[in-house]
Amino acid sequence: MQVKNKILERLDESIRADYYEMLEDGTQLAIGNPDTPPYYNVVKCGEDCIIIKPKDNQLPYCKGRVMSLYDFFPYMRDEGDRCYHVGRDIALRTLSVAKEQYDPDELFDYLRQGYIDGTLRNFVEYDVIEEKFNPDIRRTISIVETYTKGKWTNISCMVYGDKPTDFQSISYSLYRDRKRAMRFFGKRLTGENKVMFDMLDSQKGAEAE
Fold first, then answer.
1. Where would a tag sit more exposed on the chain, N or C end, judged by fewer CB atoms within 10 A?
2. Half-sphere exposure of 154 toward its Cβ, with a 13 Å CA cutoff?
3. What is the pLDDT of residues 138-153, one digit of tens each?
């Protein structure tokens, strides 16, 4: 099920799906006024037009942009949870923030059903793989996988404590290979952070390379 964007629905049906795809991919789609000069990145959209990745000289003709659902609801799964539990009337009060581009009733049905089906994802989600706290230096080390819109983004090693200077973060995004990522982290951590890293269960008995 796809929630209809009121602006994209004004496009010719033959190209509409392509623009929904661009919106999903994060391409900037500006709404141009009727006086926008025709150009290769300009397409007619009802009385207005859509400008794909507007150039500097096109900005004066822009009067907004096409918004994705994540622009309005970055915590979409949480919003679906809320819709499911509070009911339509209460949920519509919040969903109306998107009413210029999305129909609140259609949004409610989409979010509620998505929550039931387990298909909704927050824009960014974290899955903690390992975590260890060292009470002697009051510092924590975490190995975390990050997902963007449900797709794997990277695996990170984060160290944090009571002081801002305790914070260190290293990310590995080349492959979804945890062992390779751990070797990557191990070669870049030093001092107490490296000691903490070696305390992780996955590193006990691991062979140094």
1. C
2. 11
3. 999 999 999 999 999 9
